[in-house]
Amino acid sequence: MNPLPPTDVRQLDLEKPNAARMYDYHLGGAHNFEADRVLAARVEQVAPWVRYVARINRSWLRRAVTYLMGQGIRQYLDLGSGIPTAGNVHEIVQRIDPATRVVYVDYESVAVHHSHELLKDDPNTTVVWADVRDPRSVLEHPETTRMLDFTQPVGVLVAGLLLFIGDEYDPAGLVRAYREACTGGGYLAISTMSRDEADQETAEQLAGLLHLYESADEQVYPRDRATIESWFAGTELVEPGLVLLDAWRPEGKPSDSPARLLGYGGVGRF
Predict the structure, then answer these.
(1) Which InterPro entries match (predicted)?
(2) What is the tens place of the pLDDT at every residue in 104-150?
(3) Which of the two ends of the chain, N or C, has the fewest CB atoms closer than 10 A to its terminal CB?
(4) How far is CA 257 from CA 49, 56, 147, 254, in A?
């Protein structure tokens, strides 16, 4: 089944940089275009730690999903999943239990079509082309309802997505809508960028990064810790709570990059 586009989807523009494809570039992926690479290189000049932000977030996601697998979660809704790169959620979970089901959701056409090609022979994983700001279009999509049983616990993954969703779309309300669609016993995992703990130099570099994104018509919204924690309303945060990404159940030595100060992550049980 080929994925159907969401209503009013932004048309693919190879001349305009795109945040999802730039994220893929920073992770070392190949699904990006010249415009993405040019702006990404400019961003790296202004904020040389930006690649580490992407990698720290990706590492946090792997640890969070591995934790959820240990809690018996065998189906996942990955919102804003992005372009497929090494260490996708379905790869992580299916190494532990091949029968685990994953639904990826994204708005970016390149991400969706590459995911579709990657997953076409995987019976337990699918991709939904939809706008996560419209929960009904995601939750009622035929591929979502085919793959996920919402009477059983679900792991809802929101890794980095809310960084690109402005307050006018009510991020807390969006998170609540997805959580309330799931039965009890599931988990909510959220990561996003914050400047709360950044030193002055890193904060200034982050301001330069935000300016570059704005010039490319990509808005980025770092949030403070209190706002991020409010998104977990209705859940019980598991230890160690909402913390810097590489402090969440770390494995090995923490990064010494300033990037480690620029994001929080947490997992809540509902």
Answers:
(1) SAM-dependent_MTases_sf, SAM_dep_MeTrfase_SAV2177_type
(2) 999 888 788 888 888 989 999 999 999 999 999 999 999 999 999 99
(3) N
(4) 7, 10, 39, 9
pLDDT in tens, 41-73: 898 999 999 888 888 999 999 999 999 999 999
Q: Which residue has the tokens 């337990």?
A: 124
| Strand pairing class (101-106; 243-244) | unpaired
CB atoms within 10 A of CB 212: 18
Name residue, tokens 């080929």.
Answer: 2
* Domains of the chain by start residue, with CATH: 52-197+222-269 (3.40.50.150)
C-alpha atoms less than 13 angstroms from C-alpha of 253 in its C-beta half-sphere: 3
pLDDT at 8 over 50: no
Q: What span, in angstroms and rounded, lies between the C-alpha atoms of 43 and 195? A: 17
Amino acid of residue 90: H
Quote the CA–CA distance of 91 and 102 in Å, as a whole number: 10
Question: 265 and 190 in contact (C-beta within 8 Å)?
Answer: yes
pLDDT confidence tier of residue 256, bands split at 50, 70 and 90 = confident
Q: What is the C-alpha to C-alpha distance for residues 266 and 247, in angstroms, rounded to an integer?
A: 10
Bridge partners (DSSP) listed for residue 125: 102
